[in-house]
Design goal:
Blueprint: E1 17-22, H1 29-43, E2 47-52, H2 54-65, E3 74-78, H3 82-87, H4 100-105, H5 108-113, E4 115-116, E5 119-120, E6 123-126, E7 130-135, H6 136-141, H7 151-163, H8 179-191, H9 208-222, H10 235-243, E8 249-253, H11 255-260, E9 272-275, E10 293-294, E11 298-301, H12 309-319, H13 322-327, H14 336-339, H15 342-347, H16 351-358, E12 361-362, H17 370-385, H18 391-402
Parallel strand pairs: 1-2, 1-3, 10-12
Antiparallel strand pairs: 3-11, 4-5, 6-11, 7-8, 7-9
Helix pairs in contact: 8-9, 17-18
Pfam families: SBP_bac_1
Organism: Limnochorda pilosa
Protein name: ABC transporter substrate-binding protein
């Protein structure tokens, strides 16, 4: 699938494409640039990459989508935008381009996240989800031989780490009032056996699991277990503090794994490990329910107003292919055949664990007005974390405020 053929314009020159890509979590800029250069080398099609922060990505896509002629030919499409962009006709469906064989090898949760109203709107590209990252040396110094299996064990281990002076703030996270906060709340609510919305896309995050999740976050803050910068930190900042040795635990996206293990970028190389996010003891079952995660899957999509759709698809097909993703194990491949390949397992001994995590993901809802809904939830979650209202009150008010948006 990686073989790409060039597309020429009427004058015989290779037609270039503009790509909008997120420079934050996911494949890092140097890696994505290398993919694009390899594609250009094979096809002769020039690729211009526009890197942007995740927080700016949505608005840039939206602005370009309503222009008569699009600024981009390929965009990275977050799963939370699929419903809105599909309903508004901002991207083109890709169903005719995906053979049954291709679809059968793609990881089902990732593929389903790119679908809406029975059609596929983006090619799965980034199997992004959260893992538990922990410092093995710190845990050993505190007398623990393994990472926690339950949230209660996690809180106990953090308490001991703090009391023994091993690390002032055992946990660091991205709890600023952004989308990352919603993601953290998703997995913590799931860890208590709940979800944010029901099958009818009605809010249920103010039921006991969601209340317990937010109460846990508040309690950790009150006990001094969470680094105070977490309330203003994004995922990159949380990663930086962890790899600097300033925390024993964090939950973060898969991009942190490679950076954590790189001695040139990390002070905890050789100490930092990846694990599965724990669940509450009341729902823990060692066979059926022992971990959860939250999905941050992204695909590559073609804007409807792109004038280079053939070239755009050639690029998407190339960089998302099994052959290319097998070369770049900095991120988890979207292809089951690549993840299960013995060579992949040899190069990344944690890949089997990551496959367990990806099978345990919980999703944010597919809502046309998701951005507005999430912004409301973020506001009330943060008010509770700031101690300005109780978790129950914050979630009740958030549920009331989002209902008119559904």
């Amino acid at each position: 699938m990686a073989r790409a053929e060039g597309v020429r314009d009427e004058g015989g020159a290779a037609a270039g494409i503009n790509v909008l890509y997120m420079a934050q979590a996911g494949y890092q800029p140097d890696t994505f640039r290398a993919m694009a250069e390899a594609f250009q080398g094979e096809t002769g099609i020039p690729v211009r990459i526009n890197f942007t922060r995740y927080d700016d990505q949505y608005q840039k896509i939206l602005t370009a989508a309503i222009a008569p002629i699009g600024a981009y030919d390929v965009i990275t499409l977050d799963l939370i935008w699929v419903a809105e962009f599909a309903r508004k006709g901002y991207v083109v469906p890709l169903d005719g381009r995906l053979s049954p064989e291709v679809q059968a090898d793609l990881d089902r949760p990732v593929l389903r996240a790119m679908q809406f109203d029975g059609r596929t709107w983006a090619m799965p590209f980034l199997a992004n989800f959260q893992l538990l990252f922990y410092n093995r040396r710190m845990l050993s110094e505190a007398g623990f031989e393994r990472p926690p299996a339950t949230l209660e064990e996690l809180e106990h281990q953090m308490t001991v780490l703090k009391e023994r002076g091993i690390v002032p703030y055992p946990w660091v996270d991205s709890w600023n009032q952004k989308e990352g906060l919603t993601c953290e709340f998703v997995w913590l609510t799931a860890a208590f056996g709940g979800e944010l919305f029901d099958h009818f896309n009605q809010p249920v995050f103010n039921r006991p699991p969601g209340i317990a999740a937010l109460e846990t976050m508040v309690r950790w803050l009150e006990k001094g277990l969470v680094h105070p910068v977490s309330l203003s930190a994004d995922e990159t900042t949380a990663k930086d503090l962890f790899v600097d040795g300033q925390a024993a635990f964090t939950s973060n996206w898969t991009f942190q794994d490679a950076l954590m293990k790189d001695p040139a970028r990390s002070r905890v190389a050789g100490e930092g490990e990846v694990g599965l996010l724990p669940v509450a003891s009341q729902v823990y079952d060692p066979q059926r329910f022992f971990t959860v995660s939250v999905s941050g899957f992204q695909g590559l999509a073609i804007p409807a107003n792109s004038r280079r759709q053939a070239e755009a698809w050639a690029f998407i097909r190339y960089v998302s292919s099994p052959e290319v993703q097998a070369q770049h194990l900095e991120e988890v491949p979207v292809w089951r055949s690549v993840r299960e390949d013995p060579e992949t397992l040899r190069r990344d001994p944690d890949m089997a664990l990551k496959s367990v995590a990806i099978a345990s993901v919980f999703h944010r809802p597919q809502l046309v007005r998701y951005q507005e809904v999430s912004a409301v939830l973020q506001r009330y979650l943060h008010l509770a974390l700031e101690g300005r209202m109780s978790p129950r009150q914050a979630l009740d008010l958030a549920a009331e405020a989002v209902r008119p948006l559904l």
